[in-house]
Design a protein that fits this description.
The protein has about 250 residues and is α+β, with helices and mostly antiparallel strands. The protein has two domains: about 120 residues, Fructose-1,6-Bisphosphatase, Chain A, domain 1 (2-Layer Sandwich), CATH 3.30.540; about 110 residues, 3-Layer(aba) Sandwich (D-Maltodextrin-Binding Protein, domain 2), CATH 3.40.190. It has a six-stranded mixed beta sheet with strand order 4-3-5-6-7-8, sandwiched between helices. It has a five-stranded mixed beta sheet with strand order 10-9-11-13-12, sandwiched between helices.
Length: about 250
């Protein structure tokens, strides 16, 4: 029987295989409102992931980005599934996407995996994870909404001379960047919005926490439900610098 960590990896790989196979296809789109949409690849990848999870853990609940809540949930455990993080990238022919699978129980993430379908790299809370800030690359999520505006706007860092002097911004538009923070490819990642227990962010946050990164909301507080946003940094010094810059 697969452990929860092994199951998260297996499910993420199943979704990644679908995403990879559908890249470049002329895919039907499902309008989700406010400029958001899903493609047939999102739906098919989520179906593949759910099939793996349901076969192995029939008593668990699942929250999928496309299919919503399902499963009995009798165990008090919920799998969070984002089958294709970076749909607009994918639909535009850009290979910057992630497949996120996380297991939540008792208010915390206990297993998670993030798959990069195109590099075929798989990141999980079982590692290996080695954060490092030496790249000075900081990913900024510029997608709305911005619940902390006007007091805090992540986008302002792009024109802040102190930020420019120390860091180099990147805009990946997928939470794959959180896996890169956990493995030393990025110094930090910042986003606004409600990220706690989110299908988009749960797996990536779990990776960063497992790696020993400094993970807080945009105010330096623990990440909790609500529009607090996120700073995930490779080390305390990098986190402190970015926290100060966001509040200038």
């Amino acid at each position: 029987m697969l452990s929860d960590h092994e199951l998260a990896v297996t499910a993420a790989e199943a979704g990644a295989a679908v995403v990879r196979s559908r890249f470049g296809d002329d895919l039907a789109r499902v309008d989700k409102g406010d400029g958001d949409f899903a493609t047939a690849a999102d739906l098919e990848a989520e179906a593949a992931i759910l099939a793996v999870l349901r076969a192995a853990r029939p008593g668990d609940a699942v929250l999928g980005e496309e299919s919503g809540h399902s499963g009995p949930g009798a165990t008090g455990r919920t799998w969070l599934v984002d089958p294709l993080c970076g749909t607009l990238n994918f639909a535009s022919g850009t290979m910057a996407v992630a497949v996120n699978v996380a297991l939540r129980a008792a208010g915390r993430t206990i297993a998670a995996a993030v798959a990069d379908p195109f590099s075929r790299q798989l990141y999980s809370t079982r590692g290996p994870l080695r954060p490092c800030a030496h790249t000075a690359l900081v990913d900024l999520n510029l997608d709305p909404p911005y619940p902390n505006a006007p007091a805090i706007r992540v986008a302002r860092l792009l024109t802040n001379p102190a930020f420019e002097a120390r860091f180099r911004p990147r805009v990946l538009s997928t939470t794959l960047a959180l896996a890169w923070v956990a493995t030393g490819r990025r110094a930090a990642y910042l986003t606004d919005g409600d990220v706690a227990a989110s299908v988009h962010f749960a797996a990536g946050i779990a990776l960063c926490e497992a790696a020993g990164c400094v993970v807080t909301d945009l105010h330096g507080h623990p990440v909790t439900p609500g529009p607090g946003g996120l700073i995930a940094a490779a080390d305390a010094e990098t986190h402190a610098a970015l926290l100060a810059l966001t509040h200038e």
